[in-house]
């Protein structure tokens, strides 16, 4: 299976717009791409068709024909980690191996699969398994979405360390939400994290008024990200 796992240093960091942007860009290059969100949670259902808004965005970016269940096999209606959401709902935590099947199915049907994580790599899925375990089982390279604000070196270096701990193949970092007028900290953050993490910063994306995956995809087109994740 060929694909990429898009994780982030935190929730709300831009994983969905970046994952959808990558998928849109690869599709533009003529690759048959699918995008999925194996685990999602949320306070309410997004629409009749999609329980999670993230799945809806990923499906739109790839013009998917698959059902919500195929693209998002696990959804809990509590905005929390899958483990906590399941416990609050008095349900069983997700079957981590079971969630691999729909991913593998997409991987057989399509040339490339872009997979969005949930929160960060140490989000618990069960008492014993984290998102990083799922990535290892899926055997996909990782792209980390992060921010340039104060605190980012800690968040980014922790995430890169966890990638290494779990033996994940980290392809690069995307710094999202760079302000129009960055402070010295924000401006220098991508250079410093690249140096200290020993991982390339593949793109720096600006803070946008109305972010959308096509605009992100067009910005990513100017970088080497497609080559890096297709390599
Ligand atoms: N570069 C950007 N400029 C402005 N807003 C952005 C940018 N990137 C993301 N956003 C906005 O920030 C919010 C969070 O982004 P997104 O949903 O992609 O994050 P996420 O990491 O996928 O979050 P979650 O953990 O909920 O899946 C969204 O409203 C999105 O539109
Ligand atoms: Mg998301």
TrEMBL record:
Q: Does the keyword Kinase apply?
A: no
Pfam families (UniProt xref)? AAA_26
What CDD domains has UniProt attached to this entry?
Answer: DTBS
Q: Name one GO biological process term.
A: biotin biosynthetic process
Enumerate the GO terms in the molecular function aspect.
ATP binding; dethiobiotin synthase activity; magnesium ion binding
**Localized where?**
Cytoplasm
Give the pathway.
Cofactor biosynthesis; biotin biosynthesis; biotin from 7,8-diaminononanoate: step 1/2
Q: Where does substrate bind?
A: 41
Which residues are catalytic?
A: 37
Name the cofactor(s): Mg(2+)
Q: What is the annotated role of this protein in its UniProt record?
A: Catalyzes a mechanistically unusual reaction, the ATP-dependent insertion of CO2 between the N7 and N8 nitrogen atoms of 7,8-diaminopelargonic acid (DAPA, also called 7,8-diammoniononanoate) to form a ureido ring.
Partners and quaternary state? Homodimer.
For this entry, the protein name equals ATP-dependent dethiobiotin synthetase BioD
Question: What gene codes for this chain?
Answer: bioD
